[in-house]
Design brief:
This protein has 528 residues and is mainly alpha-helical. The protein folds into 3 domains: 26-217, no CATH class; 244-299 and 308-412; 469-528, no CATH class. The chain is built from 21 helices and no strands. It has helices at 26-36, 51-61, 89-102, 109-127, 135-145, 149-161, 163-166, 177-190, 197-210, 246-260, 262-267, 269-288, 297-300, 319-323, 326-346, 366-380, 391-412, 445-453, 458-462, 464-467, 488-504.
Length: 528
Amino acid sequence: MASASVPEQPAAGAAAGTVDAPAFSPLEAITRFSIAYTPGSLAPSPLPSTSLSQALAAAVAGVADRPDPFGTPLTPANIDLDSLDLTGGHVDSAARSLLYAQASLPDDNRQDNAVSNTLDAVLLLSEAGRCEYTLVHLLILDVLDVHPVEWCLRFWTFLETREERLTKNISGRKPPGTTIIRFCNAILRRLSATQGSTFAGKVLMFLARAFPLSELSGLNQRGEFNVANTTTWDPPQSLPAGAADAEAYATFWGLQQAFANPPAALADPAVLARTRAALTEVLEGLRAQATVGSSDRARTDPDVPDTFVPKWLTSYSLFDLELRDVSFRRAIYAQIRIFVEYALHTAAAGPPPANKALAAPAALTSDDVAFFRDLVDALQRVPGRAVDLDAAYVRSLNIVLRRDKAWVRWKEANTPSFELPPHVPEPTPAGPGLKRPYRHAMGTPALSRLFASTPTGIGRLRRGNEYGEIPPPDKYRRPADPDEEESADKRSSREWRGLRAARSQGMWIDFSRVTRDKGFGGLFEGRA
């Protein structure tokens, strides 16, 4: 029986209207490029040359190199994208082909410019509606995945300078929000807990700015503890025989099991009893070292870094030295306080939380509650000469724990939204009303008569000369009507206005000429 023949597939791009897509996987593309690349070549091309990818490569190559490409976004004026016949899936295939080729370029400014220009071009095309908005986020995910951490740290400036454009109207439940969470989590998994803390902080701050506080993808809704973070210490058989502090060493580091998983330590009565005894013994040992060390060393020693994420060494030979370190004792105090506050929170009376995953693991006895409350009081009493548990440290720890309790209460209420409805003022009930109108329209009889006798309206504003420009003082030298007998009040008013007019024109230096005998006319004696 003859086997059925398989029809031959047409070559990619051979027929008109076919989609320009990579003919092989990204890993194969990078491998072929690394084989074909030779030092000194300017633009090696590991992928099949197609008109679409060549057009995008030509547009990107036409951009002038910048000293800081990641920190300087491209604008439509910097790159000619109108002439490109790229839309939809064509942009996807052409951009991926170009980025896979650029991934194996030498790690220098040329590679930075090439990657930045390509991603900026795709971002501009998405803003123009010529491709999906989520495409640039998927390309960033691929770019971060194929580069080392050192290059990703340098590339992170690209995301920070284009943050507003990349995080516009995103949600943690659909792309591109889920894509941002994916590449941020991928970066965090690749970082060292001690050496990559600065980069991890940048990633977390980027997520905090991109998503609201109520975004569920960034919350520990179930209140789960990181039980994978285990602490190992020297086994008893490896300790020196007859060592006086061998038991204290084992008890001290054994508390880390309870600190790493408090629900398990509180649920088992036997484990809880051992934990209570260990807490009492460890606190007595820490208080014995309360006056050892100096809390000012971190502020005066230039060799101490400003920020440091400790991973304490648990060797028995270092145990005594660590107890003499103020920072070490404060870290243990904070661990004890967090564990005790969690235990008291689970025993607090009240209705069960709406979030059932945060319910108390087990009910504590009244003796357990009293023990933990005494521990809180002991940790808040500042010894007189203590350098580790001083007032400033206790106050700072209380503030941090108070805010953390507020977050726990919010999660217990099933994370209600922070947004409140707009305030709508209640309508004011109508009053009983006046039985009859007030007889004085302006409030007083004098103001009412003045308002009634004074003309008002736009006509008064047109008479600008009467109330605008101050007339010369010569106008008030004689009465307006010489034939009419002037009363004493009118004369005083005329002279008072004349003095004000004279003062406005700088004649106040001659006010000494105005005497009882000469009157206002004395001001003009000796003047032409």
